Structure formats: C-alpha cells, structure tokens
Amino acid sequence: MKIKISWPAGIIIALGSFIIFILSFVYKAIFVPKYDHHLVSEEYYMDAINYQQEIDLLNKTANLKENVTIKKVAAGLMINFPSEFTPTKISGTISFQRLSNKKLDFRLPISLKTHNFLLKNTDLVKGRWDVKIEWTANNDTYLFKEKIMY
Description:
The protein is α+β, with helices and mostly antiparallel strands. It folds into 2 domains: about 1-35; about 45-150, Immunoglobulin-like, CATH 2.60.40.10.
C-alpha cells in the first residue's frame, strides 16, 4: 500500500518542517543555558579607548632583554619573569580569561620571592585561556599577553 501525497500537501509539510527546524535553533539560542552568548568584555567601549595605551605597553615589554615566559610543568603553570628585575619589586596582576565561560575568569595578584610564579593544576580547567599579565617594576608598567592551551 502506497501513501499518496499531493503536491500542495508536500509543500505544506516541507515548509512546516523547515519552520520547526529554524524555531528549534532560535529556542536553543535564547533559552538553553548551554548555548549562552555574551560579550567578551562588558566594558568594550572603554577597552577600545585604552587600546593604544595597551599597544604601547606591549611594545615596551617586547623591548626588554628577556620577556615573560609561560610554561606548563607537572605541578601546574610556571610563569617566569625577567631576571633583569628584582623579584620583590615586581607587582601587578595576572588575569586568566576563558572566552567560552565567563564564570571561570579570575585574577591573581603578583607577589614574588623568586622570578617564578607557579599556578597549581587545581586552579585551571583544561582548554584555551587568554593570559594577561600587567606588572610594574622600577616604576615602569609592562604588559604581556598570550593565548595558551592548558
């Protein structure tokens, strides 16, 4: 036994299926928390205004004899600061930003006894992180940015 569908009924079924398909994506994008979308920065306008200052700080950091390095070690993430500065005189903040989930973002103050700063495995979730280190030494401010996979 064959089911016969007339061409007007076929068009209506096809359009109905397409509308349901599109509405399912609209529903997911708006109501399902898994697909939450948000801006990278809430203060994007202020970030754009200060962008030239950020570029200047990055250039100043690039002109150092030795730059900040980030390396994954067994205990966690090792951040090495330049040896040309006294470790106790280095201060600032380290920001970890996770673009996929704003709730995982965090900031740490820099307080050093040696040129190394260790962030333990328990503090980081595996995945992509944007690391921003803004630090001051000898009354000069420096900025280091890097994208890492942890």
